[in-house]
Amino acid sequence: MSKLDEAEQRLQTAVSGLETAVRAVSSRTDSRVAGAPSSSVELEAARARNAELEGMHATLAERLDGAIVRLKKILED
Question: What predicted TM-score, i.e. pTM, was given to this entire model?
Answer without folding.
Answer: 0.44
